[in-house]
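#lab-general

N.A. 3:47 PM
ok so I finally got the sequence cleaned up, no stray characters, all 548 residues accounted for. can someone with queue access submit it? mine expired

B.Y. 3:52 PM
send it over

N.A. 3:53 PM
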Amino acid sequence: MHLVIAAPAAYVLLRVKMNVRRHLKEKNTIPKIFAETVARHGDKTALIFEGTGETWTFRQLDEYSNRVANLLLERGFKDGDVVALFMENRSQYVGLWLGMAKIGVEAALINFNLRLEALVHCVTISDAKAVVFGSELNEAVSEVHGLMGKAVQMFCLGDFDPTRVPRGTECLEPLLDNAPTHLPSRPQRCFTDRLFYIYTSGTTGMPKAAIVVHSRYYRMAALVYYGFKMTSDDVLYDCLPLYHSAGNIVGVGQCLIHGMSVVIRKKFSASRFWDDCAKYNCTIVQYIGEICRYLLNQPVRDTEKQHRVRMALGNGLRQSIWEEFMTRFNIPQIAEFYGATECNCSLGNFGNKVGACGFNSQILPFIYPIRLVRVDEETMELIRGPDGVCIPCKPGEPGQLVGRIIQNDPLRRFDGYVNQSATSKKVAQSVFKKGDSAYLSGDVLIMDDCGHMFFKDRTGDTFRWKGENVSTTEVEGTLSRLLDMKDVVVYGVEVPGTFKFQKTDLRRDGFDPCSVTDRLYFMDSRTGSYAQLNEELYHSILSGKHKL
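B.Y. 4:20 PM
back already:
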């Protein structure tokens, strides 16, 4: 069984690796690869924007991106400059960053939900010389324009009202209409040069700008394409934000690299999801875990099975609803994968194993040098052996996923963040062997005897309970179903003395009913049911009189 599973995964890695080697040798970039796609699929539908029904062929997308490139050249932008993109999903979003990439201008893809300080931070750390924003975000941009600290050119896409945008803002559409459509001269760029920046939200502080190079964009899109046996005839439904890698690389990448038609939705809609799939004859849908729960919480409708969808592609689908999702919506395959924007240890569940986020061969580990390593259960620090090297986990033992860094290998390199300090925090030394370096995912996974990987928790999302580590994710999933609620947040708080007979009351604690306005409940071991927590019971728990 293990050999049967390992063979497809090894084949996928080998194929992607050979393609990467060719692109490296030919000094290709995503725009050059897209040019090959246009040559093969020129008049085929590339993008459909659900918001307007507008359809672009590959040739039209190519011409639009050429207009963007030529306009920026006319305005003095050059290879290595950065332009921030701040707008909601639309086909133009793809054309804009692609056009920038054609002349070596790097896009900073900013979350359109950001406001005030966070928005200023993202524009500032990218060192953007211009911001292209959607008219739907006029107010957000106007709020911060005076706080950017330097002169930044502003371009507005959409309904233009000069009274509602910062002074000096130009309307982008007429400028693009008058720009030439020919392919501009290409910069001297290669496969490992920077393409754009995607902002990742760290556990603390402001968003970090992760560097996405051309080879990483290709690798992320190609691994899922070949691993899950997609074809250029598939139609992919992309309702995820284009400022993130799932929507813009895993989704849109299938269009740019492999010639697939992609339906872009402005924002996810649970009530319209299956109607859209049927309308556009989609065969692949994208998801993140929350989307699956939202869809399952919708009333049963006939349209939810009247579609051609053969595969759901994404990450974060909880094992507790995995089979229910497949059965209710008649989805033959769950294409679950794992991998942050910046990581070098992506995984794919190519065998449709229920609950798994990926697979790694135990027989041929050298093919893809990743592993789970032991961590301290309290601090999540790496545990090392007498030789100073990290200790690999055995099957069934939770550990942090790490990937060996080899900078001259596009599949193994770690490009990090714009901030060097943030980059350093994600790298550890002597992980696989003495003197090497590895990327720290910050995620805890468990591997079974066959090599299937199962997501457990992001580092820190556990709490100790009666000598055991309890996963907040598992508790959230259980409560979500029991309470029939879409969103449930579970976190651990410190309870001094709960398991010791001490009668000293604490001044403050995370579950003090006098400090918390929401109603609080606890499992009453005496009755076997949940009871509302009041001040008297709170102090009783702290003193050890009432046991949990």
